Amino acid sequence: GLRIGVVALLAEIPYNLAMQGEWFTRNSQNPVWGVLIGFIILCFFKYSDKLSKTAAILIKIVVVIAGILWSGMLNISYGTGFVILVVIFWCFKERKVLSMVLSSVASILYFPAPLGSIMIYFYNKKKGKDSRMIFYILYPVVLLVFGLIGKYWM
């Protein structure tokens, strides 16, 4: 969770520059904040599974509503979509076909996101090469490069 938060923080100014042409803006926040909200939701889901069924359901409903509201209030790009996808993948983790279909339908407006649902369907639960750090660094750097090009070169 901490790494996701750091990436979201590091990517915010480059995201603003690349997407809005400004160093600081509240119009739209980078999607990594949505990933962080999704992570927080999953933490609550995992915690709530240790409670009674009624308490777990109530906590999950409240946390999902809170995640959707946070995404909206903070103007996170694709934030509500992330929350919905997290809920779909969690609720239907044992039913892969249904999970793929529902997540594809839920993300159809964000093409090519439905293709990601298909790739997740074929995930074999074997850990591949650990290259997370490259992507943690690459995302803000690429945004910064394109943001600077867009602002000063175009």
How does the major sheet shape up?
Answer: none
Number of helices: 7
What is the helix/strand order?
A: HHHHHHH
User: What structural class is derived from the secondary structure elements?
Assistant: mainly alpha
End-to-end separation: 36 Å
| Mass-distribution shape | globular
**Strand residues, percent:** under 5%
Q: Provide the gyration radius in Å.
A: 17 Å
Uncertain parts? none
Helix fraction, binned, reads over 70%
Short description:
Helices cover 73% and strands 0% of the residues. The chain has 154 residues and is mostly helical.
Q: Could you explain the architecture of this structure?
A:
The protein has helices at 2-20, 32-48, 53-73, 79-91, 96-106, 113-121, 132-153. 73% of the residues lie in helices and 0% in strands. It starts with a helix and ends with a helix. The chain is globular. It is an all-alpha fold. Helix 2 packs parallel to helix 4 (79-91) and helix 4 (79-91) runs antiparallel to helix 5 (96-106). It has 7 helices and no strands.
